[in-house]
Amino acid sequence: MSEDSSAITINVQPENRQRVFRPVDEASPLDTLSDTTRAPEGITIRTDFELVQGLEDITGEELDRLERRLRSAREQLELDRASAKTHDDSVIVRLREQQLDAAEREIHQAREIIALQEDTIRAHKVQQYVMIGGLLVLGVFAMILLLFLKERRKRNRILQKRKKEVDESLACARRIQSGFITSATPLKSTVENFFLIDMPRDVVSGDFFWWTETEQSVIMAAIDCTGHGVPGAFLTSMANTYLNRIVNEEEESDPGTILEKLHSMIYKGLHQDEDDSMSEAGMDMSICRWDKNGKHLAYAGAFNPLIAVTANTTKLERTDLKSVGGRSLRGKKDDKRSFKTREIWAAEPMDIYLFSDGYMDQFGMMAGETQPVKFGLQRFKEMVLGLYGAPGKEKQETIRATIESWKGPHRQTDDILVIGFSIRP
Predict the structure, then answer these.
(1) What pTM did the predictor assign?
(2) Which of 98, 9, 78, 19 is nearest to 48 (CA)?
């Protein structure tokens, strides 16, 4: 058997790729191979692998080459085993087989380490991809959020600007409305215990108090126009103008007749006489004429009643169930409506109340109830009966405080208007 017939020389050079590293304190059978191995005395054999570096620097490709050489060495070993004749030849074959077995175990172990490291690398790459993907998604989301917030701030600025313009416009409208409605302050010196509560739901109101005075009487009206806010405020302007014309210019003083004339003017002024008219606006109101002799009151109502309070009773004066302007209960539009004037004579001191429906329709919480309920007419009658004979200022403060307490956190339902005064026989 030739000395060099099975010799394989492998030079494993480091490459710029992932290495398989072995702890330096662990000896590798391939690392411990020298160029020659001592056999029984007098016999020298040549190793199959001549390494210039340890397994800690071997790459996967180098292991592939090493395995190919290992297979070639085993094939040569089998040939040598078959041709071994002497005992010394057999010893050499066994030693070489042991070396090849050790090298194969080392290669297998290196393969396992490489596979583990590749799995780790793949896991790290997956984590990196997930992280990069997450960052990209987060970046896109952040960009969308920033664009949304930017657009929202832009819209908020526009809305704030428009709200400011609307608020300024409404404030101007309120000043105009306050300007054409006659102040009720002079009545405090003319009418006993007079007071006025005017609580618009919005900046401008659809409810308003109208009055005028002659040498013999004072005419007062509580008017509730259709809607509230700006639509109601338009109607207050019309009603105020028409009432001034009817009473102050035409010198009409009968409450029922005043309502009839006002209805005709509203009906024509809003073109409700036309078939294609879309306006069905109108107003509910109560109007009274108090004669300055003190004991007589003439009253007419369009859906709005009047309350007369004596020491022991609260009387709700009847009203006509028809509005001024708009449709009737039967849904008809008519240019003429009749309203009845009712006479009230005071046989004893009497408190009189005119009002819109806003006070009674206000929602609030009552003990024992789970849902908001309206204040209602009955509670109002009980309240004013308890205030009988009190000064006007006390009545005003109590009635206002009562509805504020009743309302609580709830939004005001409608415009609120309450007028009160006293008459004596």
Answers:
(1) 0.67
(2) 9
